Amino acid sequence: MKYELLDVEAITTSVRRGDIVNVAKMEGRLLTEQQIAEKENPQINWNYQPQEKSPQIKLVETERNCWDVVLTEEERNLLGEFLDI
How many domains does the chain have? Predict the structure, then answer.
């Protein structure tokens, strides 16, 4: 960071991180960046991993002994927009 861009918030954050690192060093520990961030922001649930909703694909068996994917109209429209057809 350039000297001209330093502000009170940047300095405060740096001091807070320094305090976290120094306490760990006094306890004989070295912290990773992730561990420093966890201590710096304890209000964040660092173990939370949002579950992405994956679309339920519907398959229909045909007389050709194959499986065809059945799309809803909304899914077809989204694919059409994506493929620009």
Answer: 1
